[in-house]
Amino acid sequence: MPVAFLIHSRKKEKTHARFFEFVASSFPKINKTSVPFVTDREIGLVNAIRKNFPSCDVLMCWNHLIKDLKFNLQQMGADQSNTALYVSHLKDLLRSDSEAEYMTLKDELIRKWSKPVVVYFEKMEKDILTHSGKWVIDKYQNLYDPYSGITNNACESMNAVIKRLNKYRELPVDCFVLSMFYLQNYYINEVQRGLAGIGNYTLRTKFNHASIPKDEINVPKQLVKPADIVKHVMSEIDNVRDTCSKDHVSVETESSKIEGANILPLVSETSDGTENPTMSSPIAEENVTAPSQIEGTNILPLVSDSSEGTESSSMSIKTSDKNLSQKSLAKLTVDNGQVSFIEQHKAFMVRGMQGKVYAVTLLPKETCQCPASSQCYHILAAKLYIGDTDDSKPVVNLKALSKRNLKRNDKKSGRKKPRPNDGDIEILPAPDSEEAQLIEPPLIWKLLDEFYHIYLPATLYKMCAWMLRSNFIIGFLTP
Question: Low complexity bias located where (predicted)?
Fold first, then answer.
């Protein structure tokens, strides 16, 4: 269950320490009962936990150990098969039942490893012995998993919410805070249901005194399932932004009217002097030359003149959907007559939702004057204006699935002959490993070594000897 959160921009030990100081002061019993902390291998985080919870153990996630090993193997130039083998060896070591069994298995495996891998493993071995081994985790009941060992993603629903939030390139802080708030509300309700004996959680026998009747369950006002939290929060944020945007436009219009700015009349007068409230336009004129002011151009006017000589209210865009997509905004812009084409400049003039006019070109390159980094709805509106509604979607050619497309090792084996790799895989030691140094070299290597020692200068002899020992010319010596 998510209990506390920290939003920070840098992974500094001082930041982590401040957070765990708050946790220690809010939950002092954690230190007394020695509750273990499961975390990654971040040094600042581990030090902050040890400082504020000295009696609690810090356990390290297996996934991060494996991820770090894979990263370093890639830096060393290991291929996929070698990486998979080293990872399987690491998992076997982590699953050892005791430290003595771990040491025995390590001495057996490490002899075949390459020296750079041995050097890196010696650096991470301390974390395995004190924070990650099975014998360390087994001290705590129901904490070790035979498949994944121990990880810091025990809260799957919280991880699912965070993954959905990560899909957004830029996420406002308020969206994250609201998401965590709804997630906590959900778990608070689940805990209450468990105390009443009707939820997904079951109360242990020794805590039966904490049970509550069903009528005491306090259901939060807004209860959202974890799968729907992000969608609900983003729709709420869009609604608030839309409301604020409309209020901002109306406030700007009123202030411009008071200051005597050159704006379109909010209320028009009829011929008899009475006010006509239906002819209203809340959008102020910008310091932009309107398309109709350019002489000698064949354009479609943004604002059409009515029979009474007053301007039509086509400039005010009607927005009913508060969650408009780019395509919806483009269609709405075209439907409201906010697009015109200037033949002289070979460009479109598109009036946006806030009343600003942008120049848009489609050929030879799609451009727009708005600050959007990706394709904006102004460009889509210009395309819709000329009838271009083609949505180019990627085409995927599916291959015919048959037994012939299976890998050779995946095909059925014969009655007497097994498939390749059906048996145990033979592991050849790395050329620079400890075990490779103990292998007796072939007789031809000895003869060549004596020949080079007699007939070659000392420098060339050392070079040839190194080439022989490092298997550099093994391809030339094999028949």
Answer: 304-316
